[in-house]
What does this fold into?
Amino acid sequence: MTSAHGLIDFGKHLPLTGDINTKAPLAYKANRAVSRVFNAAQMAFAEAYVNGLEVPDSVMRSALHASMPIFFKHFPSLLAPYEWVLQETDHLAEGSKELMTLQYDLPQAMLNRMLGDWELIYPKYSTGFWERGAKNLEECQMHMIDQVIERLDIQDGDNILDFGCGWGCVPNYIMSKFPNVRFTGLNLSHEQCEYIRGKMQDPQSYLSSERFTLCEGDLNEVQFSEKFDKILTVGVFCHVGNLTRAFQKMASMIKDDGKVFIHIITVRIPNNMSSGFTHKYIFPHGRYWNFDAVPSHNRDLKTVQRWYMNGMNYHKTLTAWLDRFDASQDFVKDLEYGMNYAKFRRMWRFYLLMLGTIFATCDGEYNGNGQFLLTKV
Ligand SMILES: C[S@@+](CC[C@H](N)C(=O)[O-])C[C@H]1O[C@@H](n2cnc3c(N)ncnc32)[C@H](O)[C@@H]1O
It folds into this structure.
């Protein structure tokens, strides 16, 4: 819902004030020191859990439900543990190779089971949309992509770039709806590209049509000779450290009347957010941009519309992934993770449980997904 002054109305949880960057130098330093202590305590607990500390899921969920509203409402600056979380960094996308090793090139058989792999909906590593009455994971992912189609106003015949295309789920689904849409999928993960190459050989898959092109490459380096009608990017900007450079690059890739649709995890607090645990074990340099970050970078691209997708959608999606991960233990325990499986399992469960619970904090009104429609300036 948008208010008369163009800002989003926040329902019963009021927006916060108090950007850490506006504090006096002494207050800033004090704040950073407390944040470091807080982060060290969090890490100590997380690592104890990963190393075998027994904490029932219900206790962990209750502790997060009790504490996270306090941080979101009263101490949001403690949720930004590193300096690089607060400002743009030098690289467009950071630590790409490390990110692939630690996360996206993990055994695909594990990820595919967790995320789900169906006829039309391939593994999709981003939230589903449950608010339209989806009954299961497959359906909520279809509804999520339907919403992207509406909001980006995809027309048959569009030539679209999927910036960070995962397993090709979004292109496959959209091409099934539009017989003349063309797609280019860009992804740095070799393992995910191998999955896509398999589908490109499968006549049942829309990725096997000539309308689909795969580009295995890095966001930092890629160049295309053609200009696209539209770019969509789902769940990728948590890996982008410099919005200015990313927008500059995307602006150069679209036609003059082209459009860009960004879907990302976002937080409705004054600063961007990250966590020491996810940075070290799950998504190196992963950060959740605050809801105003994209619209405040109107240089090469400008935000013409934005939407907040309530965090309960990601909460339900992550809960479904955790259930599927737990249910697939017999199958996934013998795959190669580069570490002892029992440790990997605890690390992974901690990630899914923690993130899933945080999204549900304050009825999903602080931590959810932001969707942004941008055009050239
Ligand atoms: C969270 S996944 C989302 C995938 C897909 N968009 C979806 O919704 O299922 C992020 C994707 O971005 C890709 N990615 C991350 N950093 C990248 C980089 N520097 N260059 C290219 N792709 C990147 C990952 O390999 C992964 O496929």
Q: What stands out?
A: Strands lie at 159-163, 182-187, 212-216, 228-234, 254-267, 289-290, 301-309, 367-376. The CA atoms of residues 152 and 339 lie 42 Å apart. The pocket of S-adenosylmethionine is lined by residues 93, 96, 99, 104, 124-126, 164-166, 169, 186-189, 192, 218-220, 234-236, 239 (CB under 6 Å).
